[in-house]
Amino acid sequence: MRRLLAHPSLAIGLSATLLFALLGLVSLVWTPFPIADIDIGRRFLGVTASHWLGTDNLGRDMVSLLMAGTLTSFLVAALAVGIGAGIGVPLGLLAAAWGGPVEWLVLRFSDFIFAFPAVIVAILITTLVGPGAINAIIAIGIFNIPVFARVARGGALSIATLDFVAAGRLAGLGNTRIAYRHLLPNIMSLLIVQGTIQMSLGILAEAGLSYIGLGTQPPETSLGLMLRDAQGVFLIHPWLTLLPGIAIVLIVIGLNIAGDGLRDAIDPRLRQGPTNVLA
Amino acid sequence: MSLLELSGLSVHFGTMAAVADVSLTLQRGERFGIIGESGSGKTLTALAISGLLPEGAEMGGSIALDGVPLPRSEREMARLRGKRIGMVFQEPMTALNPLMRVNAQIAEAIALNPGEMVNVDVAQLLAEVGLEPRHGERFAHQLSGGQRQRAMIAMALAGQPDILIADEPTSALDMITQRMVLDLIAEICERRHMALLFISHDLKAVAALCSRVAVLHEGRVVESGPVAEVFSRPRESYTQLLVAASRFVMPTLVRQPIGDALLNLDKVTRDYRRGGVLIWAREPVRAVDAVSLQIGRGECLALVGPSGCGKTTLAKIIVGLDTASSGQITLSGQRYHGADLPQRLRRDVTLVFQDPFGSFDPRLTIGRSLAEPLRLEPDLRRETVPARLVEAIEAVGLEAGMLERYPHEFSGGQRQRLAIARALVTRPKLVVLDEPVSALDMSVRGDVLSLLARLQAEFGLTYLIISHDLDMVTAMADRVLVMEAGQIVEEGAPAQIFAKPQHRLTRDLVAARLPEVG
Q: Of A255, B103, B198, B457, which residue is 20 to 30 A from A126 by alpha carbon distance?
């Protein structure tokens, strides 16, 4: 743990991310004002004692909206990473452990999914079942599948040539057990790093989908939806657009820095030290 | 004045001293050997001389070239490198740029180090290291290991250096190529009157090439002096240990007589498909070509041959990691072709891998890795597993407490012992040993081989040893098969086959053998 925190970028990125995640989690139990509380008379208030960041065009408290919106963004992105990793990683391991036609199928399948950006999938789902946060999760999750499949396959392929995998096969382990016992634990660090990066991409994608109206729907809120609500009054009240925008930027930067730091901390080749030069 | 003088050289990483107080001198035209095992600091010493120490390393003491201390600035050092000091590294595949033709790389080395008097050109350098002009047109991956190392030497020679530093230049090569490269280095040093700093763990190579030697142990010079003196009358106990380890002295053990055939190979052939489909398909590569052989119960059979002759492929087929394209194998009366080895017979054959560092999963404890093959015994009760593990780990001379530890906590020799323990845990009949000691330090090789011999006598094991090391084979094997290009070309008892080699390859192998030290 001390080794992890020795990387300044990781410490900064991780604490920024955790701070926002905590803000979001607090909104579950407490927000300064209920976010569905519409009070037209109190709209477009500036910074006041009771409304720390003012109110929006419907008189809703901006702090409360930001907190709830951050939670939605994190939730959507995390669940999407879960879907992507949950389906993509087994697919990638399948490809690496079996090889041959299985590998070909997995690769072509992920090419196929790659051809549909999250927006297209979201539009498809919206036309079928209507918009909503669940749709954003599914759309971004599907988009994550080939990413994880490729990372898992690449990592597993480089592990699979090592002798201990052959030793496992000699010990009568089948492909499934080889993948689960030997390949997966050894590519875990790769997957964690990729997960962090996909989190940040997921938050951006959720904001994008909500902004074009395919994601979260009112009275729920998300950072993207706040942007959409505020864009009409951008010239008069730029504050309302800037706040969620800055929040998105900070979260994404935090996650990216944390991801880079994790990679540096985990990758032994980038680790400082004399361990591999004492030949 | 000596050409190169190291006095009190030390290299530190933080508080850890990797090299401490190394002093040595190198005269013009002299060939000096540095002997040491992994972690002895021999490579760091070489890197310090060429100013290429890794980041985080602090250097103490002084290095003087012609009485002038080496410059500390990278710019001046870069000018010195190549022109005064040439380097040849261990692994020529990674030392050559994979995207540049050999010619271009040598030309670059020449352009960076313009000679003052003689004009060198690429063709001349290629000829000097024994490569033909057509080799210069190729990329690194299109050359053999020996050719790559020759290309590396040509690049080192481009700047007409006074000193050539060779860091284990032959340890990645097979016996015949090793001898050719060593002879080439000796010849070039002689002709150019160039000093050589030869770094190696191989006493025989140093004895064959160098006139003086320093023995490095844990960063310190243990002993130094003329080669003949140090190796024939070693004063320090560590040097004595190294010299003793270089001659494999096997314990004399009572072994059961060799019994009936345990394993029988009948015209086993393995073809590898190359790219292309249907009519565009290229001729497949035949790695193993109609090999027939027989191993008796309790026998120790050795398979020797140069790299790429198909011996490892054959081993993989026998243990069931690969499948023969044609032919069949019979083990205890059961026929199979490789991967279709029946599950109940898998516990009878096992393989010990060459590289002890890749053969254990870094995320599993030794105990869990060792228990893995036990799943091949379906009627084994769970409660007896720990006892079996303890039995296996104690058989290889290690302690039961080590089962809880992780692979990175062990040295190379210990890991190889653990790999042997894993191979023995199912109480197999046939153990295939793929270069069992070639990745180990000299001083532990003898221990591992005696262990293998003891285990064979104790448990009546049958060994198939795959190697290119004739000394090891002579010490261990009852019978030797010589393999070339997928075919067995000669067969016989080691004493007889190496005294009177019949086939051209066997003669080359015997000729490439380096003389004993001392």
A: A255
Query: Range with the lowest mean pLDDT among B84-93, B208-217, B497-506?
Result: B84-93
Q: In angstroms, rounded to a whole number, what is the distance separating the alpha carbons of residues B376 and A126?
A: 53
Q: Is B336 within a domain?
A: no
**Touching A: B residues 149-178, CB under 8 Å:** none
* Nearest-neighbour CA in chain B from A273: distance (Å): 7
Both B303 and B167 in a single domain?
no
**Number of separate domains in chain B:** 2
Distance CA A156, CA A278 (A): 28
User: What is the rounded distance in angstroms from the CA atom of residue B218 to the CA atom of residue A278?
Assistant: 11
Full domain range(s) for residue B49: 4-246
pLDDT tens per residue across span B375-422: 888 888 888 888 889 988 988 888 888 898 888 888 888 889 999 999
Which of B61, B387, B431, B417 has the alpha carbon at shortest distance from B221? B61
If residue A138 lies in a helix (H) or strand (E), which one and from where to where? helix A133-160
Name the token pair of B487. Answer: 């075919």
Query: CA–CA separation, A251 vs A263, rounded Å?
Result: 18
Cβ neighbours of A173 in B, within 8 Å? 372, 375
Render B350-381 in DSSP notation, one character per residue: EEE-S-TTTSS-TTS-HHHHHHGGGGG-TT--
- CB B138 within 8 Å of CB B169: no
pLDDT value of position B275? 65
Chain B residues touching A100 at Cβ < 8 A = none
Angle between helices B442-459 and B412-424 (to 10 degrees): 20
In this structure, are residues A227 and A69 in contact, taking their beta carbons and an 8 Å threshold? no
- B149: domain CATH number is 3.40.50.300
A171·B16 Cβ contact <8 A: no
Q: What is the 3-state secondary structure (H, E, C) of B270-290?
A: EEECCCCCHHHCCCCEEEEEE
3-state secondary structure of B431: strand
**Residue at B312 is within a domain:** yes
Reference B153, options B191, B99, B119, B117; nearest CA is: B191
**Pairwise CA distance, residues B59 & A154, whole Å:** 39
Within chain B, what is the greatest distance between any pair of CA atoms?
A: 79
CB A88 within 8 A of CB A63: no
CATH of the domain at A170: 1.10.3720.10
Amino acid at A88: G
pLDDT in tens, B27-67: 888 999 999 887 788 888 888 888 888 887 888 888 888 88
Q: Which residues from B are below 8 Å from A163, CB to CB?
A: 353-355, 358-359
* Domain-embedded: residue B166: yes
Q: How confident is the model at residue A38, as a pLDDT?
A: 75
Q: What is the pLDDT of residue A93?
A: 93
ipTM over 0.85: no
Averaged over B113-120, what is the pLDDT? Answer: 64
Instruction: Give B345's contacts (C-beta < 8 A, 6+ positions apart).
Output: B331, B332, B334, B336
At B485-497, the pLDDT tens digits run 888 998 988 888 8
Q: What is the mean pLDDT of residues B471-477?
A: 86
Give the range of the structural domain holding residue A143, as residue numbers without chain letter. 52-61+68-248
Helix (H, G, I), strand (E, B) or coil at B221: strand
DSSP structure class, residue B408: G
Encoded amino acid at A101, one letter: P
B222 and B306 housed in the same domain: no
**Residue B310 and residue B242 share a domain:** no
Which pLDDT band holds residue A272 (cuts at 50, 70, 90)?
A: very low
Q: Does the residue B270 lie in any domain?
A: no
User: What is the residue type of B165?
Assistant: I
User: Could you say which DSSP state residue B139 is in?
Assistant: -
Going by the DSSP 8-state scheme, the letter that residue A216 receives in this structure is: -
Identify the DSSP state of A61: B
The number of domains in chain A is: 1
Q: Tell me how close the Cα of B499 comes to any Cα of chain A, in angstroms.
A: 36
B395 in the same domain as B504: yes
